[in-house]
Design a protein that fits this description.
502 residues, mainly alpha, 74% helix
Length: 502
Amino acid sequence: MSTTTAPMNHRPLNSGGPEPPNRPWAAIVVIAVAQLMIALDATVVNIALPSAQQALGFDDQDRQWVITAYTLTFAGLLLLGGRVADLVGRRTAFLGGLVGFALASALAGAAPNFAVLTAGRALQGACAAVLAPTALSLVAVTFTDPRQRAKAFGVYGAVASSGGAAGLILGGALTEYAAWRWCLYVNVFIAAGAFVAGRVFLPATPASQRTRIDVLSGVLATSGLAAVVLACTQAIEHGWTSRQVAVPGVLGLLSLAVFLVRQGRVASPLLPLHVIRHRARGGAYLATAAAVVGSFGLFLVLTYHLQVVKHYTPLQAGLAFLPLTIAVSGSAYGIASRLLARVSPVTLIVPGLLVAAVGLGLMSRLDPSSGYVTLIMPAQLLLGLGMGCVFTPSISLATSNIEPRLAGVAAAVANTAMQVGSSIGTAVLNTVAVTATTAYVSQHAGATSSEALVHGYAVTTGWAAALLVVVAVVSGLLIATSPTPSAATSPATSNQKEGQPS
């Protein structure tokens, strides 16, 4: 069965050129490269952070903002970014996002001080908030044949789920053999190549004449998500019952509540509530967020365990994540994408979460003497195998059976789930690790620092494993009890009133 694209009978507004040739698999390569760049930047700076701190001279309590400045603006602006893509046309938004990301990366890479570095990272997140939902919705509307669509989401899922681990490898190599600034400069070259190829191969998509952007709703959603993530981040240093956590947490939840109420009343909502109220789509979003929490929990544990306890170099620590990267890619494209057109998404998502939970549970046995081959590598392989079977069907399900004009919004929510999962998950799991380490020291007077640290890491992965088990049950029930058809169904051929909640 041949691959086809959705019919396009006219050029989009502001397309910037003639409609590109019908080469959907060339388009998926361009989209995948952009998605890889976005995923890389969530972690590529992690291993380089000590070098950046030494060069710019900022304090320990400030270093977290180099990471969270990116994830905060990314998560907070994703809904607005998806709407922008629908408003101006996905191809135009994609190319514009690439230009902005390249400029923000150059600014952060050349930063003379901590403030400029943080500002550049925040701008990267803002541009990624336009790029990510645009890329995902381009996949959704480009591939309409069920089998080809499943393969396309397999490629996208492999890139999206393995990019974080790949970022750790790239960050280690660039930090050790070039300089920490090249962890940021490298995006300029990636974005430039994707921009040139995108103008040639990306399908022209029309702007939506009916799309309107509700600026107030955008402010409420952005500030609310940012405040909640900030509260979770502050818990690392001040504790969950502190004023530093309570104030932004309450304000953030209040802002999000007002946002949701407003979405049910305005004529052109930023987030039509039926997009998230549908049980199958809600279960897919939940599974995606949980899988990201699990993966970032392992990144958090292993990054410090390998460098602080095992004394790996930055490159060695990055390469140590290679089994996870290979497992995720192989699972997403080799297993999930091949089965997605034949089986129900829930039959992939639930087992995937459970297998990932087993991998994290294995890491809960970690101690200072644990070997890489006997414990760490098997845990990564299990986590990667499970994650690949979660991301591909979840992302496909989240963007299927929805009006094409809302594809950008549905994709934005899927990416929001990923970023909120990574931001909140990292903050919460780090707090668990610090609390467990402190308790271990107080209960074991003769314990070494390595023993205390590793105990904290083991407790953290145990909690992450438990979370994945709970989410496997909840998301499985949500998806299995929904009347939504197979995720492989093309949104272009689904003209039913999907907007009605199930």
